[in-house]
Specification:
The protein is of the alpha/beta class and 253 residues long. The protein has 7 helices and 9 strands. It has a domain of 162 residues: 3-Layer(aba) Sandwich (Rossmann fold), CATH 3.40.50.
Length: 253
Amino acid sequence: MGAGPHHHAGQDGSGVATETASHVTLTNLGVQRNGRWVFRGLDLAVPRGTFVAVVGPSGVGKSSLLAAIGGMIEPTEGTVGFICLNQGLHAPCNFQPQIGMVFQNFMLVASSSVLDNVLCGRLGQRPWWRTLLGFNRRDRAEAFRVIADLGLGEYAHRWVGETSGGEQQRTALARALFQEPELILADEPVSNLDTYLTGRVLGLLRQEASQNRRTVFCVLHNPELVDRFADLSLSLDPGDPRGWRIRTVRRAS
């Protein structure tokens, strides 16, 4: 039986979180599904602020990889390590609140508004008793700004169940961004979007990596999008669980 995810804070000798060390480290990571290895022996050290595109054909294990990194499934073997920027004095740190997830099935509450769904992104960072009082004006203004950045301003007070698949996909991304997480895991976040919105969404994720030093793992299928937005491309091989490859993307500046 393999070791589960190991979430820890990195420190230097002074007890201060180290910025230079890798933000996310995958060590001999492997996941087995129904007796079959989907990937195995995955070793990767990702610096903070890197946009990693996860690529490969359908069914190869891209969603399983994101789930293993995010702690939603236990790896069959190997470990996932984190260095927390905000919790350098706490080891091991609880990294879960530092992860923003965009699921393929969105995981939204259909009978709540777009704004309320986005506000829920910070529930894990608050004591339960504070959430009983609702969100303050500043939280609501910040959430609305994120919603507007994704072109959803006119839908903020509409029930999610009354919005389209593309609008729900952007709502799920807005919720993740509103968390202000250290790590963003996005599973096909542009699959329901047109060319313009695809560029807008991936541009925001690129900005989160470049300017806000958040690390992004994003499942993408279009090679042109990988070359336009990613720093690294991690490809999984359907014929060989150990056949994964990592390459540096020569992005145009």
